[in-house]
Amino acid sequence: MSGVIIAWSVTIAQLLLLAAMACALLRLVRGPRAQDRILSSDALYVGAMLLLLTFGIRAGSTVYFEAALVVALLGFVSTAALAKFLMRGEVIE
Tens of pLDDT along 61-75? Predict the structure, then answer.
């Protein structure tokens, strides 16, 4: 019975993460300012990372966890670079 509860919980979590990613994508497209778009892309990559983690839980494979780690690292670096670009107008000094 606990396996069924975990399977349903992971499925519900994946659906809610997809809904959150859809909201972030909507803000990315319609965001009135660049800051809103950067924040929504940040939320989008966090949602993608968590979705990969739930796929890893469902499949029982470590490949998804490694992919989630790569997505998290690239997302953080891209968010920091975009924020620096908005503040100073250049990324590399």
Answer: 999 999 999 999 999
What pLDDT is stored for residue 85 in this prediction? 87
- pTM across the whole model: 0.85
Q: CA-based angle 53:51:58, to the nearest 5?
A: 55
Please state, in angstroms and rounded to a whole number, the distance separating the CA atoms of residues 78 and 38. 9
From the candidate CATH numbers 1.20.1300, 1.10.287, 1.20.120, 1.20.1440, the one assigned to the domain spanning 2-88: 1.10.287
Question: Structural domain boundaries of the chain?
Answer: 2-88
- The rounded distance, in Å, linking the Cα atoms of 69 and 8 is 25
- Length of the chain, please? 93
- What is the rounded CA–CA span in Å between residue 45 and residue 41? 6
CB neighbourhood size of 24 (10 A):
21
